[in-house]
Amino acid sequence: MKKLALLLVVLFAVGFAFAQEPEYLVTDYDGKPGGTLYLSTTQGPKTLNDSWAQETSSTDIIDIFLDALLDADLSGNPSGGGLAKDWWYSEDQKTVFFQIRDGLKWSDGEPFTIDDVVFTFKDIYFVEGMTANGPTGYVDSNDVLPEIEVVDDTTISFTWSTPSYWGFRAVAWTNILPEHKLGPAVENGTYQQAWTVDEIGEVVGMGPFIPVEYTEGTRVLLERNPHFYAVDKNGVKLPYLDRVIFQIVPDLNTELLKFEAGELDIYAPTAENFPRIAGQAEEKGWVVGTGGPVTGSSFVTINLGHQDPVKRSWFTNVHFRRALVYLLDRESIIETLYNGLGTPLYGPVPPSSGFYNPEIEEAFPYKYSIIRARLELRQGGFDWDNAGNLIDADGNRVEFNLSTNAGNNVREAIGNILVESASKVGMKINFRPMQFNTLVTQLTQPNYDAIVIGLTGGSDPGSGWNVWRLDGGLHFFNYSPELRPDTIDPETYKVYDWEKRIHEIYVESLGAFGEDRYDLFAEFQMLCAEYQPMIYTIAQNYLYAHPENVHLANPNPNPFAGQLWRMYGIWKD
Amino acid sequence: MLKYIVRRLILAIPVLLGVSVLAFLVISAAPGDFLDQYRLSPSISPEQIKVLERQFGFDKPIYVQYFKWLWEVLHGNFGYSFEYHVPVFNLIWRRLGATLLLSVFTMIFTWGIAIPLGIYAALHQYSPSDQGLSVFAFIGLSIPNFFFALLWLFMSAKTGWFPIGGIISLNHDELSMIGKIGDYLWHVVGPVVTLGTAGLAGQMRQMRGQLLDQLNQDYVIFARAKGMPEHNVIYTHAVRNAINPLITMFGYALSALLGGAVLTETVFGWPGMGRLVIEALTSQDLFLVMASLLLASIMLVLGNLSADLLLAWVDPRIRYRFR
Fold first, then answer.
1. CATH number, position A319
2. What pLDDT digit, counting tens, does each position of B144-202 carry?
3. ipTM above threshold 0.85
4. Is the pLDDT of residue A161 over 90?
């Protein structure tokens, strides 16, 4: 019996000696462990199921406890530092290989293996009906999903029928899910109801903090993941913080008071509150700053496929659209709405993105100008009657409706300012904000004249495919009759050359890397600037504030990498 | 009496059915549906929208959707929330505690203050204190709740006497059992005062008016004339008669216990039912809205019933029987 025990001890010792140290991510942070980080959010999470979560109140928390193969760098592009130790392409660029870090564990101590990666894609993301977004995001320009192949214990490859940057990006950024936890739900067909807020104690992840408790409508408590895969430069296991608490604060004024009272460690001030925060910064010991314009854009879309021939003739007239661009006084909207803390936009890509093409500013210097607007209108064949009203070549008075969703004060201000300056050139715009769902119905039917609306975006313009492709579900400025057989008459439908070229750019961009990708989107921006299918307006600048004793991992918070970027490196003294 | 209650409850069934049909129709008649937020997502393709429409059952005609829902409800299944993917009553259940905490305390606060003050004001009609109370009550009534709540939070932030919103403190976990209860009570003061001062005026004026009515009745003069002590005249006779309409109001107040108060909840960050329902309404989370409407109707039926029973108990002239 004794011998057996001795043998076991020896076996264990040998086993430990040979067990390899997991392949940790080594970072150069130098912080102090411990402490709790207090954050705020306007709503609680709706679900913790990454495949069905739609709004940031849920995804903000999901992105903390789950991790993907690759991380994002400071400008919002794929970079190392995720679950993959390395990644590379085959020579023909059709295949991408990911090598995962060996010896990692899920937060519950179960081993993390290549099978989890296979499970995530093969059983969930590549299957129709398993996710809210569907598998479209992973296909290449031939509409084909990639083949998955497990090369060895730590390496997996994805092969498309043609080189696919967009598919690679989607794969690299998909949060990997644990097969040992979610496998049964997938098999039973109850995956959609898995990991709801009722099951918060069940979730496991690879991220730095794991949610352990949700007090309905009150707060979400996340605790440090003891098995997280990164260490700092002294070999201290990350993350530094012990706990993260999201307090649910629905009202922005209350949030401001809480930050001022020291109950929040990270704060995103509104433009309205920013001067007040900046004014107290020195006295209170706060770090306050601004980044570039945020990516969510507001724009005016004009219905080029309008069923009324008169209105269609105005809206499809490029000079008419350019006149509207000149008429929008972006600077004064920024002054009134954002205390000057905004950036005028003249195209779909914000200047803070690495894909921004500065040449459009020289080629098409659209600044607010009534005179230039008049010139454009004159060039477009418009004229004025004796009363100063704008009329088209056939003598019709130019008058149309503009709408937006009621309650959004940014969009309402844009509408009101546009109406006012349009009246200076005799153009009559009837501005009628309406309920959100009514607006969406009008927009997607489509039966509208012009609408002020916004969409979420990213640093890479590729995320706009659903808007810019001819067959896109949000191509609302000129839907094809195939997509909208009830409202669009094939007789009057017309595809414009620039519109077609933009479509081609988007198809090509799926497989375009590096320089080629930049060039394609530079051309896209030039086309948008010239033809103005949608009139871009303004974006607020990214604003941030936090006490000095909170040390961020991000040296330079910006719209693509915010204050919580690489949260495992944040520490407090 | 039991028979009467059973009869009332049976009569409530067609009412609830009617409510459910109307509610379903009205919600469906509103433009758009839950998938509208998906339709405006740049990453969801038109084909995927079709898949989702099938999954959520929006491709069927309204009456099919309704009967499917009703069938499930009759089997005790009120459906899943589209947004949370959990059974709707789980969501309502999770909000119940905080909602009741707030509404019960508000009720105690409002009624506990309004009735004595109303009586006092009636007994001192047109005196400076009566006038003062009226002014005070109407100020409470006329300040919008959200504004009062912000003022309260601002005061709390400046003085530190009360917490800045929420329902628990940051160190809640470290507190003892008594400490935790105290923590909840400390947090509920702000919302209760906000909602309570707004409701005060109505009940107080009602009480005052009713009591004044009674005090001018012949039987009061008679009681006084025969030398009954003033205390007895007022509290045993006049107040007892004056209280009837307030009991009916109390029934309504009971039915509002689970309703929540959206604006106050939002400013204070109170996790009550109001915010849940308003979010469900704006996102058109159909089954969640239906469940909350049904719950409100049930509460209304029960509130009315209990008001009627209370009336019978308080007022011996009222008797319910079958005909």
1. 3.10.105.10
2. 888 999 999 999 988 889 998 888 888 888 888 899 899 999 999 999 999 988 888 88
3. no
4. yes
**DSSP-derived secondary structure for A459-513:** SSGGGGHHHHSTT-TT-TTS--TTT-TTT--TTT----HHHHHHHHHHHHHTT--
Residue B322: what pLDDT? 47
| Pairwise CB contact (< 8 Å): A254 & B39 | no
What residues in B contact A43, CB-CB < 8 Å?
Answer: 279
Cross-chain residue pair A254–B86, CB shorter than 8 Å: no
B165: chain A residues, CB-CB within 8 Å: 249, 251, 254, 257-258
Chain B nearest-CA distance from A304, in A, is 19
Contact across the interface for B271 and A258, Cβ inside 8 Å: no
Instruction: Count structural domains, chain B.
Output: 1
pLDDT (0 to 100) of residue B200:
87
Q: Is A440 within 8 Å of B164 when comparing Cβ atoms?
A: no
Phi then psi dihedrals of residue B14, to 5 deg: -60, -35
Give me the residue label for tokens 């009586």.
Answer: B119
Q: Is the domain of A367 the same as that of A276?
A: no
Confidence category of residue A14, pLDDT binned at 50, 70, 90 = very low
Same domain, A454 and A533: yes
Q: How far is B37 from chain A (nearest CA, A)?
A: 8
| Cβ proximity of A373 and A422 under 8 Å | no
Domain shared by A497 and A476, yes or no? yes
Chain B positions touching A463 (Cβ under 8 A) are 42-43
Same-domain status, A382 and A274: no
For residues B204-213, give the mean pLDDT: 90
CA distance A427 to A422: 5
Average pLDDT over residues B77-94: 89
Its domain, for residue A81, covers: 67-176
Range of the domain at B188: 88-314
Here the CATH number for the domain that contains residue B282 is 1.10.3720.10
| One domain for residues A421 and A514 | yes
pLDDT in tens, A410-460: 899 999 999 999 999 999 999 999 888 888 888 888 889 999 998 888 889
Does position B11 have pLDDT exceeding 80, yes or no?
yes
